[in-house]
Design a protein that fits this description.
The longest helix has 42 residues. The relative contact order is 0.07. Helix 2 packs parallel to helix 3, helix 8 crosses helix 9 and helix 13 runs parallel beside helix 15. This protein is of the alpha+beta class. The chain has 17 helices and 13 strands. The strands form 3 sheets. Strands 1, 2, 3, 4, 5, 6 and 7 form a 7-stranded mixed beta sheet that branches. The chain folds into 3 domains: 175 residues, Formiminotransferase-cyclodeaminase, Chain B, domain 1, CATH 3.30.990; 166 residues, Alpha-Beta Plaits (2-Layer Sandwich), CATH 3.30.70.670; 207 residues, Four Helix Bundle (Hemerythrin (Met), subunit A) (Up-down Bundle), CATH 1.20.120.680.
Length: 563
């Protein structure tokens, strides 16, 4: 299973004293598994926006430590600044990044809010998706009256904090903790220097749209509703804010956009829509830029979108999808787009977090052949399975592009996508098997001087051994599921590549048999015999079915070779 990631973007009411800012961010960096991405202090606002990312529980811990440190260092009684604020940690939103939904993120936000309220005695309001009622969804409502209005506000029944006491904390004020969608700052470059035209395009697409006017849309009298407020003509894109501006150092105008919910309106849809609206006004979009970071999923979705428009298979590598996205949206128009610096997951991985799967083929072989016991047969079994389904995926991609089969591109693209998902799981399991083995070794190295230590050590060994037996079962299950793709490609795929499907079937069989050996040897060390016997029974059933499946595929391949 891929790691869950959330982002946290706390705003602290200090933008001038770098010493205080450093102490707060040091608390964030003290939590292992959390990556500090950005620190943006503002002197006029006297406010610093911090961005960090990591696994949900780690992010909650880091956020709590930062809020605690801010409450010790920032005295709101002395605070002055241009930005609205009501606390030392003014707002602290959590943002789902990958492999986690909003509902789960809300639970973590409320967990953080509860800790702040109870342990630090700071009044906390939950806002946006974490809000307990409709009125508190809007941050402006929660923060109305700002710090100076808190004593009166906390005395009102309707503004009792969600967590913490309804008592004024003069030093720390109050904090708003929320859960919101990922915001992407995105600019589209135009082949014009006209700010007016860039603004017009921005008004065409942004959700708010433009003011409605009588007669001339530029100079006519503004149309107002019964409350004497301007009537708006909505733009074409939901969850998008935008304006037009001119960038003097680049000599071009841009449509500058904030995509406030990329699950509602993805980046690639924004680019295509701006492109269309610009063209309708005689202007060309020449490319675009992402300001800050973007989730990997947004780039992969964009790559698939543009490949589908070309009626080409989307079952290609992550690297290829990103390349297609960059070229299609012109993300390298102004500056080079470096995925390792712009995609959150890649930034978090860093250069030192290399996997076995990232080694060259000769590097992996050298590592396997060394005197170290890992990687061993389990990782190699997963590797064989990965090569097996890679061949099936290759046949699907070749078939989708075969001359004369144009109308079948989507059929084979679907098979290729399935193959890619199975391939990615098997590649993950190459390293996971080695990690499981290392966990057993770590458990054996634990101290065993006292009875309590012996008990903890034995439990750690058993837990690690159970997992070390479960990993090869996952390899078996994933490799077996891959046979479906291989068989379909042997029967329906490009006949010129039928032997590739056959080799894929042989590799999958070897992967399954090898993984079953690994499962059985690890199961022998499990004290819970019921657990161990259940794993072995599942593995034996998969191995039996594998022989039948592989035999069937090889017969199909041989019949086509001999025909």
């Amino acid at each position: 299973m891929q790691q869950q990631l959330i982002e946290c973007v706390p705003n602290f009411s200090e933008g001038n004293d770098q010493g205080i800012i450093d102490q707060i961010t040091s608390e964030i960096e003290s939590v292992e598994g959390v990556r500090l991405l950005d620190v943006d202090p503002g002197k006029a606002t006297n406010r610093t926006v911090v961005t960090f990312v990591g696994a949900p529980s780690k992010v909650v811990e880091a956020a709590f430590r930062a809020v605690k440190k801010a409450s010790e260092l920032i005295d709101m009684r002395k605070h002055k600044g241009a930005h609205p604020r009501f606390g030392a940690t003014d707002v602290c939103p959590l943002v789902p990044v990958s492999n986690i939904n909003m509902e789960e993120t809300v639970k973590y936000a409320r967990e953080l809010a509860k800790r702040i309220g109870e342990e630090l005695e700071i009044p906390v309001y939950c806002y946006e998706n974490a809000a307990f009622n409709e009125r508190r969804k809007n941050l402006a409502n929660c923060r109305s009256g700002e710090y100076e209005g808190l004593p009166d506000k906390l005395g009102q029944k309707e503004w009792k904090p969600d967590f913490g006491k309804a008592e004024f904390n003069p030093r720390s004020g109050a904090t708003a903790v929320g859960a919101r969608d990922f915001l992407v700052a995105y600019n589209v470059n135009l082949n014009t220097t006209s700010t007016r035209r860039a603004n017009a395009i921005a008004f065409d697409v942004r959700e708010k749209g433009r003011v409605k006017r009588h007669g001339n849309p530029l100079t006519g009298k503004i149309v107002k509703d019964e409350h004497d407020k301007p009537v708006m003509i909505p733009g074409s894109l939901r969850a998008v804010k935008g304006i037009g501006w001119f960038i003097e150092e680049l000599g071009v105008a841009q449509v500058s956009l904030n995509i406030t919910n990329i699950s509602v309106t993805p980046v690639h849809i924004v680019y295509d829509e701006v492109f269309k609206k610009a063209e309708a006004r005689g202007v060309r979009a020449t490319g675009s830029e992402i300001v800050g970071l973007v989730p990997l999923k947004a780039m992969l979705d964009a790559g698939r979108y543009f490949l589908k428009k070309q009626q080409r298979s989307t079952g290609v590598s992550e690297k290829e999808l990103i390349k297609i996205a960059v070229k299609s949206m012109g993300l390298d128009d102004l500056y080079p787009f470096r995925p390792e610096e712009k995609i959150i997951e890649y930034v978090l991985e860093g250069k030192n977090n290399k996997r076995l799967a990232d080694l060259t083929l000769s590097g992996f072989a050298d590592e396997t052949s060394s005197e170290s016991p890992a990687p061993g047969g389990g990782s190699v079994s997963a590797c064989m399975g990965a090569f097996g389904i890679a061949l099936g995926t290759m046949v699907a991609n070749l078939s989708s592009h075969k001359r004369g089969w144009d109308e079948r591109w989507e059929e084979f693209s679907t098979w290729a996508e399935k193959g890619r998902r199975l391939l990615e799981e098997l590649v993950f399991l190459i390293d996971e098997d080695t990690r499981a083995f290392n966990a057993i070794m770590a458990a054996f190295s634990m101290s065993k001087q006292t009875d309590e230590e012996k008990s903890l050590r034995n439990k750690a060994i058993q837990d690690a051994t159970k997992y070390a037996a479960e990993v090869p079962l996952r390899v078996m299950e994933t490799a077996f599921n891959s046979f479906e793709v291989i068989k379909a490609m042997a029967e329906e795929g490009n006949p010129n590549s039928v032997t590739d499907a056959g080799v894929g079937a042989l590799a999958l069989r070897s992967a399954i048999m090898g993984a079953f050996m690994n499962l059985r040897v690890n199961a022998a060390g499990i004290d819970d015999r019921g657990f161990a016997d259940n794993l072995k029974a599942k593995g034996a059933e998969i191995e039996k079915k594998t022989m039948d499946f592989e035999r069937e595929i090889i017969q199909i391949v041989n019949s086509k070779i001999n025909s």
